[in-house]
Specification:
mainly alpha
């Protein structure tokens, strides 16, 4: 019976992760195309996706590399974009923390925006699941997201400039984040943090090397934390 519960959790995760393919496909292909146009080889482009596996940070680093930004700025900006991963990890630890260390390592590697958003919503709706069932659901969500990310990145790198620039593949990034963030803005503190970060990101868009994103991220976190304290709200 326990095995049946794990398998049903896995397939439920696959079902919930499938819609993200419509975003992962064009987004990963666009990265592959732009990376090769920026001078990376097909192998380097694929390795970039496998090692980093963080689309927003990859695009940020790629843009800065094409602008010949200092290496430290490239690394700092990519890390700033990925600061949210630390918050994801803290939020999902109560659910997956009891797992063996090798399973936690797998979860840490595949903890991306989509797997986090879908998993947290599922765990909050069904808190009575065992850690094994939660891990199975997490792997199910990951299955149609992360392996295809590698494949479409490779495909984009191989196709390169043969893809027409007016195809409009860059629509995927904003749609992906809107779809993931929207259901998570459940409290006034969440909405205040999101609003402040958006305002700051637009206000400091002129700052070189995308450093305005660091300002926006820090400002949003501070605003959200202050809102929770003043309003007496727990996330």
């Amino acid at each position: 019976m326990a095995g049946d519960g794990v398998m049903s959790s896995y397939w439920r995760g696959v079902r919930d992760g499938l819609p993200f393919l419509f975003v992962v496909g064009p987004f990963g292909m666009l990265f592959g195309v732009l990376a090769t146009e920026a001078g990376l080889s097909v192998y380097e482009t694929l390795a970039f996706s496998v090692v980093v596996i963080a689309g927003a940070a990859q695009f940020t680093a790629l843009q800065l590399l094409t602008e010949n930004a200092p290496t430290l700025v490239v690394i700092a900006s990519a890390l700033a974009v990925n600061m949210r991963m630390a918050m994801y990890s803290a939020a999902i630890t109560p659910h997956l923390g009891p797992l063996p260390i090798w399973k936690r390592g797998i979860a840490a590697y595949f903890l991306v925006d989509q797997t986090y958003a879908a998993s947290v919503l599922e765990f909050e709706k069904h808190p009575d699941q065992t850690p094994a069932q939660k891990f199975a659901f997490f792997l199910g969500v990951m299955t149609p997201i992360c392996p295809p990310w590698y494949v479409v990145t490779l495909l984009g790198a191989m196709l390169g400039t043969s893809i027409p620039p007016d195809l409009g593949l860059d629509f995927a990034l904003p749609i992906a984040f809107l779809a993931m963030i929207g259901p998570l803005l459940r409290t006034p503190a969440h909405r205040i943090a999101a609003l402040v970060s958006v305002v700051l990101a637009l206000s400091f868009a002129w700052v070189p090397y995308n450093l305005g994103l660091i300002i926006a991220g820090l400002g949003g976190m501070i605003a959200g934390a202050q809102a929770e304290q003043r309003l007496g709200i727990t996330p």
